[in-house]
Amino acid sequence: RSPQSNKEESAPPVKDAFGGDLSLQSDDLLISGELPKIQKPKTGKKLVGIVTSVEKKGVYVDVGWTADGFLSLNDVKGYVGDGRKIFDLQQRIIVWIKQVIHEKSLAKSFTVTMRGKRPRLLSDLKNGEILTGEIVALLNYGALVSIDAEQDAFIHKSQMGQVVWQIQDILAVGDSVKVKILGIDVKGKKVWLRLLDKQSLSILTSEESKENCSEVDSILSKDFGIVPDDVLYTIFTFLPISSIGTVRKLCPLFERIIGRRVDMNRIRSELVCFYSKISYSTEILGLGMSIKHYPRNQYTNKVGPIESITPTLDLLGYSAYHYRGQRVGVWKEPFTNWLPLYLCPSHGRRALPLALTSIDQMFAGAGTDVTSVLEILPKLLNTMVVNTMEGSLHESIRALQGYCYFYHLLLALCEDNSNVRKTADQRIQTFLDGESGRSKKSVQSLGQWITYLSISDHFSWNDPEVSVRFLEECFDRNVKWIVKDHPRVYNRLTSDDVRLRIIFSKTEVSRGLIMFHVLFLKTLRFDPYICGGKKYLTTSEVKSRLDRTFGRPDYQMESIIQNGIKSIKAVSSWDQFFQMLDVTAPSKSYMNQWLCQSFRNSERRGYHRNLRY
């Protein structure tokens, strides 16, 4: 052997950035001496190569042909930022012929790979495909995953199923993960993924739902479970009314039967006009609305935008409003407009055309049906949440009833006109795309914007990107009111503990509204009777559920809201606040950085005056 050969043989193996050995470790291939000559490179052929030239973006490899092959860093398993840090001249490595470009050319005539014999081409991958991969690198904003393709794929931290502050908290190099392909850019050689098996979402897959339904299934298989629901309900009708509430709490089976049947009978008996006592079956029922506008435009004399809408929550019939001129509620609250409700499909067929006309009148005819719907009903939903936060427990149940009425109507309008949901999804996406899409000019009310999530099947509060972006914008907008009373709270001389305590105290109303909005979203989008309340419902399933209860909350919903209100009022720390939102709480230092960054954002975006705070 030549001295050069001895030098190569004695050279220590070169490790990649993650501890993997890139050197030759195969007994069935030549590991020293001169390379055998090959007549023609064939795609997929396994060869021994010697590194002849090292560059930042790759290396040239001699495999025994007339020209050297080029090994791109993209074809090295794992994340490699600079080839000069990984490879040495005359290093022997195992490669596979990837592609022959020009056989007769002597310059870069073929490419090689270290990923294996036949890595999958990006063009062979499909959107939505579920794969098992290996984490090969952790970055500040995501992770690279090897999926046995010609290019590693990327998972952004917003696609990891939970709020992630530090990638290292949930992933490590070498982890085996199940992923779903979200997008493929063949030309740009990029693949985007969503992490499936590391998520902590409360949204369950169908398989998980089946597993979590075992509690109800076990009850149904027992003695009471073999009795038809109708028979059990007939038995329950012989119980004193005072005992019904106790019996329904004994087990999930009784809760489901009594809850749905008793609530339905109670609700049906209340669906009458308070003025004429005519039932929903023969009358179109709705609610009175008191609308307050901002002052008229002094130049165009047009009616100003809607400042507030205050509904009366007592059902009023079409005849009483239009023919009898009824303009006050049960408690003499005056109102100016009337909004028909969608109680059930039969009632809705008569009410929807009138509802669209009424919404257009309230919006002063200033937009399309879609624009009017997405202005009036989200404002009403936000009003109900505010009333819940400010009222007593009894008043909160009344507000929940109003919320369900308006939410049911909004779902029906989405079903009647698909453009309503599409527009809401577009507004959500615009909000997520960048700061300009969630500025005060684009989104005047965050309370109205968050209600768009209630009618979306593509976005939910459980999506980390949605919840974190919303909180970021909310914190940016809070700065103006915080510095008004505490101008030095963001000063570097202020300790972290003092800053956290002051800002927590000053944002009580803002935090409360967010928690109540999330509480309402969770109450409506999770069915308490299925899988222990862990099954996330689609909008069509929510509408069907409200159809059964005539757009009213059932006993279980009321109980969830009441318990949620007590929990919200007991929140006394940032950790408890994030827990109520189902968002992973950041560390104290990260929270301080977040709040200070919100101050800088607010100043840069013109949310507060540029003073020396």
TrEMBL record:
Source organism, top-level taxon: Eukaryota
Molecular functions (GO terms): mRNA binding; structural constituent of ribosome
SUPFAM superfamilies xref list: Nucleic acid-binding proteins (SSF50249)
Pfam families with a match to the protein in the record: S1
UniProt feature, compositional bias: Basic and acidic residues: 1-10
Disordered: annotated span: 1-21
Gene3D superfamilies linked: Nucleic acid-binding proteins (2.40.50.140)
PANTHER family: 30S RIBOSOMAL PROTEIN S1
Protein name as catalogued: Ubiquitinconjugating enzyme subfamily protein
Species per Swiss-Prot/TrEMBL record: Hirondellea gigas
Lineage summary: Eukaryota, Metazoa, Ecdysozoa, Arthropoda, Crustacea
